[in-house]
Amino acid sequence: MSEKRILLAAVLKPVNDTRMYEKLGLSLSKLPDTQIHIAGFHAPLPTDAPSNLRFHPIFRFNRLSLTRFKAQQLYLNLLQQLQPHLIIACTHELLLPSMRYCQSTGAKLVYDVQENYSLNLTSQRNYLPVLRQLLAWSVRRAERRAAHAVSHFLLAERSYADELPFLEEARYSIIENKYKPAPGYTLPATPVRLQQVPLRLLYSGTIAEMNGVFEAVELAEKLHALDETVSLKIIGYSSRQDTLQRLKQRIKEKPYITLVGGDGLVPHQKILEAIGESSVGLLPYWPHPSTSRCIPTKLFEYIAYALPVLVQQNPLWASIVAANKAGLSVDFAAIQPQELLQRIRQQTFYTSGVPDTVYWKSEEAMLNSLIKELLN
């Protein structure tokens, strides 16, 4: 079998992205006689990548910059240079040029659906109402136009199978964002009790109002007033300067609340280290259509580290937390701090250990089997 070239590409995802590189890319690099190429936003290149995996940080511009319009041409140039046999488009923005390339060359196209982009655009108030509708329409139009040319869809969330009208059952697989053990990861000790330890709260990932960063701060303030061992670490990136400035002002002169990152991307390994050093993980997401049926990646990560969690009340998340004795479901908008502190201190977590279902291994096997079949 001659060597096959696989290209994974996204416009705004960094080339060292957790899903595109660490999970999909590294898993596919294990296939024999394959060369993996990852194209994305400019970021520090991993130094320990396998020899058959190469990076192409061809995108570098501000999120709303006019130079973003050059992205399609940069991508087309890369396609002509690499001549991949299979493309995994990790964003809707690259679907149409990928489709045209595949139609002209006979290459295979896979669409990695990481978000319900249309729903996110219409339900999240990041743009003016008219612009929201226009952007959502253009995204769904591109997805519908390309759907017939897509050999297979990878769905990061089970809910997308019901939400996305362009899907056909025989052509999609659910590849969830489960935890891929980092170098040095060891199975954590269980069960976990927090009766007499400092409570180090953690908010990790995207720093955004809708993701509950200010609810995390408010919770830390209330619990710290009752117990001086309570602290909060916020680690991640914020794409909105107004949110970041509000946050910095809010935590000013509160030494028990620290911010790591904020205006710059934080390496995933650093976030995992923070998880390992914490005692309670927070998932204070606002109840919202764009997130309520999705499983946050950090929930898999927190459970993999046997980190007790506080999650916003949600039937899907509550079932996962309850099944694994992983934490408590609470309403962050109506916290009773004294009662909550008592519950955290008295409960025993992870009484049956860390479940195998949170690990990436099962997803890797499914992914590699699928791609191997498509290449043949």
Q: Describe it for me?
A:
By secondary structure, the chain is an alpha/beta fold. It has 2 domains: 4-178 and 360-375, Rossmann fold, CATH 3.40.50; 192-358, Glycogen Phosphorylase B (Rossmann fold). The protein is 38% helix and 20% strand. The protein has 13 helices and 15 strands. It has helices at residues 18-28, 71-82, 95-105, 117-123, 129-147, 160-163, 213-226, 241-251, 268-277, 297-304, 315-323, 337-346, 361-375; strands at 4-14, 34-41, 53-59, 86-89, 108-113, 152-155, 172-174, 192-193, 200-204, 231-237, 257-262, 280-283, 309-312, 327-330, 348-349. It has a 7-stranded parallel sheet with strand order 3-2-1-4-5-6-7. Strands 11-10-9-12-13-14 form a 6-stranded parallel sheet, sandwiched between helices. α10 (297-304) links the parallel β12 and β13. α1 (18-28) crosses α13 (361-375) and α4 packs antiparallel against α5 (129-147). The longest helix is centred in the middle third of the chain and has 19 residues, at 129-147. It is globular, with a radius of gyration of 21 Å. InterPro entries: Glyco_trans_1. It holds the Pfam family Glycos_transf_1.
